[in-house]
Predict the structure of MADF domain-containing protein.
Amino acid sequence: MDFVSKHIDMEWKQECDLPVLQEIAVSEPFRFKTSTRERGKVWEEITKRLNENKVFRNRLGSKRAVRDRYPLLAKKYKQKMTEEAKDDRRSPELTETDKLLEQIIKMLEESDSEGGEISQQVKLNKENERKKAEEMRYHSM
């Protein structure tokens, strides 16, 4: 069974969302910069652990299925919160899934504002390399 058919076979149900969000909250893939190997490895580990879960029964295929599910859940959550904020009579009833989404969204916003741990280290390393190169040029003159 190839990736496409495996990806299509996975039908997302509400009962699947909670384990996905729990894994994302614990693994914190957002602490690494987007499109890096480190972040990709975290998504792979999340997918591997979820495939071992009886709810998924090894039907997830690649990390893309999990990685693409989060933005969709976050979008639905934000829409729900916007609608409930407009309707003053209703008080928002947060499910465990909603609470996890709120936590993950905050984590993502914090990592975006910080630039991620890895990018900070990369910036420092590049700055140190630049200073060393300038010193070497200065001494060679």
